[in-house]
Amino acid sequence: MSDPDLGGEIPDVDPSGGVSANEKGIIVPVRHAQDIESFEGDFEWAEATVTVRLWSDPPDVDDGCTIVFEGWLATPTGRLWIGDADENTVAEGFPTSTGIRVALKSDDLDSPEQVWVDAWKA
């Protein structure tokens, strides 16, 4: 995740598999298709879902979730690029400095299928 005009100045990937972050970008490892095995001989795609919510103030943490990152992100254009090697999207309406909280289900921290990104004016 980063502002699209920052030229992809995101941090290096943490080899331990955890979240990597700096003021210009955040990397959250998620479950990928090659991380699962098919039980019927057919290839099954593992997909991660990222839900981004923009708030006026920091929200409460959802039950059953663990915060894996909380900090701020420079978003000078008010946009946030979210993507991986296969797909990406750009969300708009962010302040120029955005508070960010990344939460995962507490029982799925190593290879998550669901990621919640809460954002607010920093």
Architecture overview:
It is a single chain. The chain has 122 residues and is mainly β. Helix content is 0%, strand content 40%. The protein is built from no helices and eight strands. Strands 3-8-7-4 form a four-stranded mixed β-sheet, with no helix packed on it. The protein has a two-stranded antiparallel sheet with strand order 1-2. Strands 5-6 form a two-stranded antiparallel sheet. It is globular. It starts with 19 loop residues before the first strand and ends with a strand. The relative contact order is 0.27. The model has no long low-confidence stretch (mean pLDDT 84).
Please outline what is shown here:
This protein is mainly beta and 122 residues long.
